[in-house]
Amino acid sequence: MSRVVVVSGGGTGIGRAVTVSCAKDGDTVVIIGRRAEVLAATATETGAHAIVADVGEIADAERAAAEIGERFGQIDVLVNNAGGNAVLALPDPGPTVGPVARASAAWTANLRSNVLTAVHLTEALRDLLADDARVVLLSSIAAFRGSGSGSYGGSKAALHPYAIDLAAALGPRGITVNVVAPGYTTETEFFADTMTAQRHETLVGQALNKRAGHADDVAATIRWLTSPDAGHVTAQIIQVNGGALPGR
Fold first, then answer.
1. Which helix (H) or strand (E) holds 133?
2. Which residues form the Ketoreductase domain (predicted)?
3. Per-residue confidence at 1, pLDDT binned at 50, 70, 90?
4. How far is Cα 53 from Cα 33, in angstroms, rounded to an integer?
């Protein structure tokens, strides 16, 4: 039976892998993202319905939810994939900006990118969730071992108690809420142009199976969590990192 699946950040990386997998299984997929051309390309390939929206903004999240509600009535799966290390996209503030202001800018950007995107969309769609629906939030290995700057890992870690509280609130309706925390994963835009061969080898070396993760690895875990087989799995943080934690 076809389900209605909503994937934020569904145009690239892990979100795209989830979209492709769901579409192959016959699900009706709605992908949400900020970049119209990226969403259009994935929608054309998969048959997904695309909504251009920045769910870090309340109005955009509510607009997307209203469109989904009007078109589909209810949803069966919500995958909150939108996010990333927003610090990588921040402009250099210059030498006159002090350390407190720099830290504040980094934390504000990452909390918006990784926490508010998930919270806004989830709360906007909450009343549209069908009984026995599945909700998945994307965290990171950085939530457990840090990210070098604090703000990215901290923002991802904030999703963990949110998911647990949400699982408790929605559990009586048979709705599960889980978190997937990937490690180093290729086929994503996460590192932008900062990845070097040396860093790649270091990250691969941290995995016990001595390989990088792939977007399809994470998508497969998400697909299982959203399947009927995982109906008794909720309020969990599932790591997909080849055993890299705690790394070195």
1. strand 129-138
2. 3-183
3. low
4. 5
- Per-residue pLDDT tens digits for 21-67: 999 999 999 999 999 999 999 999 999 999 999 999 999 999 999 99
DSSP conformation class of 56: T
Name which of 137, 111, 140, 112 is nearest 122 in CA terms: 137
Which residues pair with residue 51 across a beta bridge?
32
Helix 117-125 vs helix 58-72: angle between axes, to the nearest 10 degrees? 40
Q: What Å distances lie between residue 140 and 69, 171, 239, CA to CA? A: 30, 24, 8
Amino acid at 3: R
List CB contacts of 231: < 8 A, sequence separation 6 or more.
132, 174, 176
pTM above 0.70, yes or no: yes
- In contact, 4 and 28? CB cutoff 8 Å: yes
Q: CB–CB of 32/8 below 8 Å?
A: yes
In the CATH hierarchy, which fold is given to the domain comprising 4-240? Rossmann fold (3.40.50)
The runs of H, that is alpha helices, within 78-228 are: 99-110, 117-125, 142-145, 151-157, 159-170, 197-206, 215-225
Per domain, the residue ranges of the chain are: 4-240
Beta bridge partners of 181: 239
